[in-house]
């Protein structure tokens, strides 16, 4: 049964039971509509408590239905019917009331909740706006200013704040339902207060709208939904509820059908599936409390910060006092910059520094459940680290390498405990970037692999399993992308035109600006090494630039020139002269054509990666690109793009 009814004296208790998150699927909507009629007609019932079974009230509309045309009964009609009920409905909320769940609760005459319950309208994260009256009822209940934050800025109050805002009438302790029934008994017989939609809300001062518009447009960075959510809210305040509801619904339906919303839904499901791969569901991860990080450079310090952030105990292992001091100061710098930006309080920053343990030499690894190696990208150096760890660590401790290119089988070869060894490839800055490529070797035990996923979950990362190949999933696609971008330049397309096209598509930077920021030399050295091994790697424009000393921003120029202390790229006559021997006649190419060439290249490499079994699914490749390489979220990823193109 998706919606159950129980009668307790004169109170009906309606429980939505639609695991895992009580989404408002078609059957739930039908049943709620039918119940609203039936309970109105039942003379023994004087009030209705509406709640959700399990951990939460309702997580919203059933997102899986959004790929199909809407099916009646529509949620706005269900909410309106409950709101029009002759008897008071009382929403009893624990866990979360999200999206349509909050809209449903707003249709009830009263709301009671536990203090820890969360209230949110997260639709904008899915490229849509609330579609069942949320933009109209919420401001009438909590006022315009607070409603703007919740509807268009992802603010999500908990029960206590909701009580202060008037979103909740009273807080109740668990067990929730008896508390809600007692509340219902107390309101039976009282004159009914106005419904959410009937309430009158004062129009705000004009600057509230202009300031909110400016703020939301800036933070939306081109996303369609947040400004439109604000518009629907504003329209209802300025032109009345009917007009507001009509605009909200038409905007919702229009946005629901966009590519952007489909891309965001694709990522929503991919991100959830990524955390729980089917083959590992039955396995228990090993307990991890103390983690060693070997190497306190940029990567090691970033990893340490991510671990501290997740509340783990960590020991940062370095080889001498000077390196320990450097690592401590890198970490202190990271915390300080988070503190300055208001992302971290003074207390948290000092608590982290207090929790950070450093050690010279490997002795401390003895206490670690997991040790992550983040030293220089050199096979011999990495092997010597693991040889030491093999001597010191407990025989059940997990060993992970943060290599980005080296075959983990070579690193682990001949060392003790190959079944406890795996690759955990973090992305820089590791305390920020969400991607974690998990690279098992053929010897890695499944529970060790499961522990990698569990760690990712605890760190708030998106884990993607990668097979072993040069560059794993992400750097391999990056290489094709850059090579193709350089091929466009060799074909006469302007460097800045390529960058501009990719920025217009949604990347924060184009491929050449990005290389200038990261440095051209790593890819160059990589190609040189391949050439030294006798591989036929033709010269690329990037090689000529590096040989001429142009390694990117750090040398004052690469593909572009940079003025001192200014990261804005300027067209470089020098760079153009240097690469001229490899560049053909000038060619105009439309931005869209540039984007499709580069998308096609990424997808082609993605298909090869799939065919070789390096990635387990196309959605994983999209996650790698979105969470590790700045691929615009609203575009869903290269494989999503390829699928869309394939359908047209
Ligand atoms: N519609 C359909 N499926 C949903 C869903 C929704 N609104 N919300 C969650 N799910 C699914 C997830 O895909 C996942 O499925 P899986 O087990 O097959 O992978 C399952 O429910 C559990 O979700 P998950 O996110 O893994 O659990 P959680 O306990 O970490 O978080 C929520 C639960 C509700 C907080 C989280 O799922 C969430 O934020 N959901 C989206 C809410 C939303 O955006 N609502 C507005 C919709 S318009």
Automatic annotation (TrEMBL):
UniProt subcellular location: Peroxisome
Pathway noted in the entry: Lipid metabolism; fatty acid beta-oxidation
Reaction equation(s) it catalyzes: a (3S)-3-hydroxyacyl-CoA + NAD(+) = a 3-oxoacyl-CoA + NADH + H(+)
UniProt-listed Pfam families: 3HCDH, 3HCDH_N, ECH_1
UniProt keyword terms in alphabetical order: Fatty acid metabolism, Isomerase, Lipid degradation, Lipid metabolism, Lyase, Multifunctional enzyme, NAD, Oxidoreductase, Peroxisome
Residue ranges constituting the 3-hydroxyacyl-CoA dehydrogenase NAD binding domain according to the UniProt record: 290-465
Keyword Iron listed: no
BP-aspect Gene Ontology terms: fatty acid beta-oxidation
CDD domains in the record: crotonase-like (cd06558)
GO MF term list: (3S)-3-hydroxyacyl-CoA dehydrogenase (NAD+) activity; enoyl-CoA hydratase activity; isomerase activity; NAD+ binding
Major place of residence: other
Domain 3-hydroxyacyl-CoA dehydrogenase C-terminal: 471-562
Annotated Gene3D superfamilies: 1.10.1040.50, 2-enoyl-CoA Hydratase, Chain A, domain 1, NAD(P)-binding Rossmann-like Domain
Superkingdom in the source lineage: Bacteria
UniProt cross-references to PANTHER family, sorted A to Z: 3-HYDROXYACYL-COA DEHYROGENASE (PTHR23309), PEROXISOMAL BIFUNCTIONAL ENZYME (PTHR23309:SF49)
Subunit-level organization: Monomer.
Protein name: 3-hydroxyacyl-CoA dehydrogenase
Organism: Shinella kummerowiae
Lineage: Bacteria, Pseudomonadati, Pseudomonadota, Alphaproteobacteria, Hyphomicrobiales
């Amino acid at each position: 049964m998706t919606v159950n009814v129980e009668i307790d004296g004169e109170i009906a208790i309606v429980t939505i039971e639609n695991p895992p998150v009580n989404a408002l699927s078609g059957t739930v909507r039908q049943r709620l509509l039918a119940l609203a009629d039936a309970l109105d007609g039942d003379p023994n019932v004087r009030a209705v408590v509406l709640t959700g079974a399990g951990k939460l009230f309702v997580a919203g509309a059933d997102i899986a239905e959004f790929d199909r045309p809407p099916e009646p009964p529509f949620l706005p009609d269900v909410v309106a019917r409950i709101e029009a009920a002759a008897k008071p409905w009382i929403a009893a909320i624990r866990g979360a009331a999200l999206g349509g769940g909050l809209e449903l609760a707003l249709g009830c005459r009263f709301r009671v909740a536990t203090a820890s319950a969360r209230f949110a309208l997260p639709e904008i994260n899915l490229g849509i706006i609330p579609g069942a009256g949320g933009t109209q009822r919420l401001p009438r209940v909590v006022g315009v200013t607070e409603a703007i934050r919740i509807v268009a800025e992802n603010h999500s109050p908990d029960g206590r704040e909701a009580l202060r805002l008037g979103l909740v009438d009273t807080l109740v302790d668990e067990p929730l339902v008896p508390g809600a029934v007692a509340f219902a008994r107390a309101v039976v017989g009282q004159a009914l207060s106005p419904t959410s939609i009937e309430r009158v809300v004062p129009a705000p001062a004009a600057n509230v709208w202009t300031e909110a518009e400016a703020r939301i447009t800036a933070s939306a960075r081109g996303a369609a939904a947040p400004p439109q959510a604000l518009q629907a809210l504003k329209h209802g305040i300025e032109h009345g509820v009917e007009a507001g509801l009509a605009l909200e619904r038409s905007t919702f339906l229009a946005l629901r059908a966009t590519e952007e919303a489909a891309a965001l839904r694709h990522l929503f499901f991919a991100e959830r599936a990524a955390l729980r791969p089917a083959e590992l569901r039955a396995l228990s991860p090993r307990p991890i409390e103390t983690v060693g990080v070997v190497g306190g450079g940029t990567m090691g310090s970033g990893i340490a910060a991510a671990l501290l952030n997740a509340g783990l105990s960590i020991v940062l292992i370095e080889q001498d006092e000077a390196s320990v001091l450097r690592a401590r100061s890198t970490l202190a710098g990271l915390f300080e910059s988070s503190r300055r930006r208001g992302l971290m309080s003074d207390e948290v920053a000092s608590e982290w520094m207090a929790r950070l343990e450093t050690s010279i030499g490997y002795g401390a690894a003895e206490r670690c459940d997991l040790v992550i190696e983040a030293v220089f990208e050199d096979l011999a150096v990495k092997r010597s680290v693991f040889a030491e760890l093999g001597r010191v660590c407990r025989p059940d401790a997990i060993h992970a390498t943060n290599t980005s290119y080296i075959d983990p089988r070579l690193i682990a070869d001949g060392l003790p405990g190959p079944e406890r060894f795996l690759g955990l490839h973090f992305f820089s800055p590791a305390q920020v970037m969400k991607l974690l490529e998990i690279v098992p070797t053929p010897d890695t035990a499944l529970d060790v692999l499961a522990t990698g996923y569990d760690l990712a979950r605890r760190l708030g990362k998106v884990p993607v399993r990668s097979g072993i190949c040069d560059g794993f999933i992400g750097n391999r696609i990056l290489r094709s992308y850059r090579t193709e971008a350089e091929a466009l330049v060799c074909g006469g397309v302007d460097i800045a035109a390529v960058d501009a096209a990719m920025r217009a598509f949604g990347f924060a930077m184009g491929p050449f600006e990005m290389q200038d920021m990261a440095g051209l030399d790593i890819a160059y050295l990589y190609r040189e090494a391949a050439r030294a091994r006798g591989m036929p790697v033709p010269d690329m424009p990037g090689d000529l630039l590096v040989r001429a000393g142009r390694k990117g921003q750090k040398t004052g120029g690469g593909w572009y020139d940079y003025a001192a202390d200014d990261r804005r790229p300027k067209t470089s006559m020098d760079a153009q002269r240097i690469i001229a021997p490899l560049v053909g006649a000038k060619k105009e190419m439309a931005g869209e054509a540039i984007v499709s060439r580069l998308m096609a290249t990424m997808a082609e490499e993605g298909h090869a990666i799939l065919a070789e079994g390096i990635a387990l699914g196309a959605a994983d490749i999209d996650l790698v690109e979105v969470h590790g390489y700045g691929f615009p979220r609203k575009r869903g990823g290269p494989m999503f793009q390829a699928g869309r193109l394939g359908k047209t």
